[in-house]
Amino acid sequence: MGGTAFFVDNTIFYGLKLTILEPKPVTAKIIAVLVATIVSYVLNREWSFRTRGGRERRHEAALFFLVSGVGLVLSSAPLWISRYVFRLETPDVSLVTQEIADFMSAQIIGTLIATVFRFWALRKWVFPDEKAESGSVRPAPTPDSTEEAA
C-alpha cells in the first residue's frame, strides 16, 4: 500500500514539478500528496486494515483524511524549509543541487516523517483493533474454576 502511494506521489510530484508547476514545487508536492492520500485510503481500507476498525465509513474516512492532512503538512514542510528557509533553489545554488535537495527533502525526509506518523495514527485512531480497544478481555475459565462455581 505504501509503495503504491509512494509511486503515485512521486509520479505526480515530478510530473507537475517538471512541467506546469516548475516554479511552485511545494504546490506540486501538496497536489501529489492529496492524490496519493485518496489512493492510500482505498488501499488501506480494502487491504491493510480490512479486518480492523468497525466505524461507519463516513467517520472512518473523516478521521483518515484528518490524519492525512497532518501528514500532508509533515511531508511538505521539509521541502518548504529546504527551498524557502535554506534557499536551496536556483539561482542561489546549481540546478543539480536544487534537484537533489528537493528529492531529499520532499521524497525522502518528508515522506519518511509523514509515513511514520500516518502508520501510528491510522492504527491508533482510524483503524483501531476492536479487541484491544474494548478493554473487556476476560480470561478463559479453567475446568477447575467452573466446577468450583457450581
What layout of secondary structure does this protein have?
Layout: H1 2-17, H2 25-48, H3 57-85, H4 95-126, H5 130-134, H6 143-149
Helix pairs in contact: 1-2, 2-3, 3-4
Task: Explain what this protein looks like in three dimensions.
The protein is mostly helical. Helix content is 75%, strand content 0%. It has helices at 2-17, 25-48, 57-85, 95-126, 130-134, 143-149. Mean pLDDT is 84; it is low at 136-141.
Biggest sheet record: none
* Contiguous runs where pLDDT drops below 50 for at least 5 residues: 136-141
Output the structural class: mainly alpha
Q: Which range best describes the helical content: under 10%, 10-25%, 25-40%, 40-55%, 55-70% or over 70%?
A: over 70%
Shape: elongated
Strand content: under 5%
Number of strands: 0
Rg, alpha carbons? 22 Å
CA(first)-CA(last) distance: 52 Å
Q: Total helix count?
A: 6
Helix and strand element order: HHHHHH
Mean pLDDT: 84
Short description:
With 150 residues, this protein is mainly alpha-helical. The protein has helices at 2-17, 25-48, 57-85, 95-126, 130-134, 143-149.
